[in-house]
Amino acid sequence: MARLKCTKIELVRLKKKLGLFRKYLPTLQLKKMLLQAEVNKAREELRQLKEVYEKEKREVLTHSQLLDDPAVHDIKTAFDVEEIFTSHENIAGIQVPVLEKLTFKDPKLSLVKSPLWIDTIIEMIRKLKHTYQKVIIGIEKKGILESELRVVSIRVNLFEKRLIPELEGNINQVRIFLGDQELQAVAQAKVSKEKILKRKLKEEERVS
Predict the structure, then answer these.
(1) Which end of the chain has fewer CB atoms at under 10 Å, N or C?
(2) What CATH number does residue 98 fall under?
(3) pTM across the whole model
(4) In this predicted structure, which of 23-27, 80-84, 94-98, 154-158 has the lowest mean pLDDT?
(5) Are 129 and 79 spatial neighbours (Cβ–Cβ below 8 Å)?
(6) Into how many domains does the chain fold?
């Protein structure tokens, strides 16, 4: 740790640095507050998505026996995801993923020979897979926001509990040192002045 320089120049430097830290801290605190709100929002969105997914999964399972029909043995190709389209949005200065859409492969089915309910089943399972992908994206989004919140929280604590108090302590230490030096200089000047006056008095006495 560098030794503290108790000079007026150092005092000015420390005051300037403290001013910058105090100016920056509210920005960090605001970002922490916004991120906390977004994390809470992301957690709630994910909770709701998981509920929707479980509901859709139960609905699909109630029709699962229909998939054993020999007439639809190729139906599984209709559930294969061909491509996942995502984008990003800015939340509190952080880029997080957003699911745009899923595309599925064309089913290898004979529409003429297939049962009437096949389209409904395909739609249900595709919807389930879409919701599942939204859950995956939601988990990723929540993780990114939580990670950034941890980083910002550490910075806020660093400024609040270490950097700013440390600077304030150093400034007080330099001020005390300079104040003591000033008092000492005044006292020395006073002593010197008294000595000069005494010497003059003695010279005047010798002359008289």
Answers:
(1) N
(2) 1.10.287.3240
(3) 0.77
(4) 80-84
(5) yes
(6) 1
